[in-house]
Design a protein that fits this description.
The complex is a heterotrimer. By secondary structure, chain A is mainly alpha-helical. Chain A has helices spanning 25-45, 52-73, 81-105, and strands spanning 4-5, 118-120, 125-127. The longest helix of chain C has 37 residues, at 75-111. The chains are: A mainly alpha, B mainly alpha, C mainly alpha.
Chain lengths: 143, 231, 578
Amino acid sequence: MSAIAEPKSESSGNEPEAVAHVASPLIYVAVFLGLLLLTAGTVAQSYVDLGKLNLLLVMGIATLKALLILGFFMHLKWDTKFHAIVVVTALFFLGVFYTYTHADTGRRGEFDPDQGGVLDPDHAVRILPKTGEPAPGGFGASE
Amino acid sequence: MSTATATEHASGDGRARPKWLLHHFDTPAQQFGTARLGMWLFLAQEVLFFGALFVIYSVFRASYPEMFKAASQQLDKIMGTTNTVVLIFSSLTAALAVNAAQKGKRHATSLYLLVTIACACVFLAIKFFEYQHKFDAGLLPGPAFKPIDEHLVKGLDLKSNSGSFFALYFMMTGLHALHVVVGIVVFIWILIRNLRGNFSKEYFTAVDITALYWHFVDLVWIFLFPLFYLI
Amino acid sequence: MAAITTAPGTYDEVDPNTSYLENNKGLMGWLFTLDHKRIGVMYLISVLMAFALGGIFALLLRAELFTKGQTLIDAETYNRAFSLHGVVMIFLFLIPAIPAALGNIILPIQLGAKDVAFPKLNLLSLYIYVFGACFAVYSMIHGGVDTGWTFYTPYSSSDPAHGGVGTSSSVIPMTLSVLIMGFSSVLTGVNFIATIHKMRAPGLTWRRLSLFAWSLYATAIIQILATPVLAITFLLLTMERFLGLGIFDPRLGGDPVLYQHFFWFYSHPAVYIMIVPGMGIVSDLIATFSRREPFGYMAIAMSSIALALLGFLVWGHHLFVAGMSEYATMVFSALTFLVAIPSGVKVFNWIATLYKGSISLQSPMLWALSFIFLFTIGGLTGLFLGMLAVDVHLHDTYFVVAHFHYVMVGGTVMGFLGGLHYWWPKFTGKLYNESWAIAGWLFVFLGFNVTFLVQFVLGSRGMPRRSYDYLPQYEFLHQISTVGSWILGFGFLLLGAMFVRSLLNGRPAPRNPWGSAALEWMTPTPPPPYNFVSDPVITRGQYDYHLATDDELYEGFDDPLLSHKSRKGGVDEGKEDA
């Protein structure tokens, strides 16, 4: 059997093409109103101080808005799944970058007690064993 | 030799090739799907591009939470919210422009494109005023941070190292604004092409992928806005 | 036979019976071409020039290190020499060499496609690369950089001209150069993924893809996801140097280790951009020159993808002694062990392919075998460096230098040269002199090992890297290493002369000089502008020797088992020049 044969059919060896889905404009308007609502919500929330919850809520609402835009405006809902995989992969590695960088910057000065050091749990700064003083320097150790 | 006998470069389905079908594609659907995929791959790159800046933001915020809170009060929430609404609206009109192009409605497409461009320009105008205020108030990046009291918003006291906050603010919103400018230029080009009659129900790829880019620009702002203005 | 057709959307009038070299000759035909083969050739010329420049810096370095103290140049110049050697070799040569040069020429042909998905973008990538390279040349003219190719802050970010205390060398043009060339890399990645997904000929299923194509796919993933982080890093570095922003400078409230995180988040996956396509070439070479399908085809393909993905998780192993948190060092060390696994899978599969294969030791195969041997050494020594406790002693010593030269030169460069030899007849239509090729290989292989094997010893005995001067006990080994560099340089010169000679009066190449079953050898040599005489439909895999016909394999193939007379087509002699 040879590598190349007569072209028999027009079927391509590629994935099935994404048929351009024509959505109703009403869906877009509905998404827009949803986005406006969420914007109003997040701005309103900014006038209330909820401490640590602030960041979580704000990011949560932003994520919801992003999902609306990705899914409807950018047609991910109706496109081939591979496009969504591309986005998810990019976000995943961004998450990896974020997580492991913070594994460093968020834990500077932590010291393994098994090595004979002492941890100050409030500030996660190494306490020098001889003097009892915190070790100098460190990013974010003081404002 | 068992290679196929030579045939002409016919289009995939035997019809005459439309003139917008490029030489290396077999069918219009292949061309359109490839263009879409290409834009998504480019957007994946942009996710990491802006995302890296968000990581820097997160590291600095984690280290200096009080400084960030105080500095963000100096940003005008009203202007920021307006910009957000304007950008979201422009995303809507961009999506409607694609929708109209898909249906072959040339005039509607032009109208929606025009509104999108106008909104983008409004966004930049508001940004300009915001930046101008920062300059007047001395709220500048790094060592140029020298706040002038009478221009400041009343609120928490600014810390002395707030230069880092404004460095990030200018870098991230500046890079975003640059992307808005590029979007405007490309949309103008798309508008011109549409007025010339280049697009049709069968071929509107350029409108579609430009709108994809524009939605992404909106997406970035949706995260920039709360992180700088609201918390 | 097809009449001459003018395809819309191109500048070229296309005659399928000519080669891509003859069609639309002239400078404009090349500078404005949309043909991936021509773009690839232009990339090839560029990267070879960069390689020569980087090599000159290397020879300068090693000459200086021949004796203790100053031999040729002073310390400041030495710092610039090794920095420029690194920047030029990595960003101007290693990153584009296999994907953008060889990949551009070969990938669409291996897919049965007429071109890449976005030919205009391809041309733009080339011009962006050249534009970026101009910035690098500008920087070099103004003295280059002395920060090392890693540009660690705050030395690189603190400009004395703006009140800082760091280097005054030409950093900003160089960082801008790398930033710009990064976009070239990204766009190539976008192009290749779209091409592999959308442009395959009918019948070319994912399981029939060549392993080179699989490796380019994996590389493209890395290019797209990692490079933007480098762009941002260097943008921030530029801003910091120019405006004193204070993101990476501790004096201004920043964090220099944060810079290292950002730099290495790209630069570690970057080394996989450099090695994975090399591995793809080796897979194809081993298959062809053992005349059988690769052992564990899917395992090799998936290990390329795995390498690409896992490569993003380990960048912290460059920061073990930089001041990272202990917790992070442990996490990264553990993950680094993981990333060695896919490489091991490949080496195992290559060797299993060789076993009971019909091995023919022609010049491309020599490079492939060298790759396996040298990359194994390089990879294993990387594991030593991945071990926290060991790295504390070996970091910033010559052990690291030896390790990465084994993987980058013993790996990537050998893979690149193997691919260059292998596909040379394909895209030039000429043969090179096999005896010269073997001689060149011998000098390169020997010279390389003499240069770098002793550096493992140097490093483990404490010789620090990037060091202009050293203690007397290291001098002898340094001298061996320098002599090795001369042997290595001579080998490259020999190869260069061989290829030039081939271009000038090499014998015309037959369609399939290696007897390969892969798709790129089923089309005329050199290929017509659209790669195939007519739209192909693929009916077997790239490595299915048991399914290939005699015609496909044997036209022009110098099989030592066949007598000269019994070969079809009357091709006389072997591949020696007339």
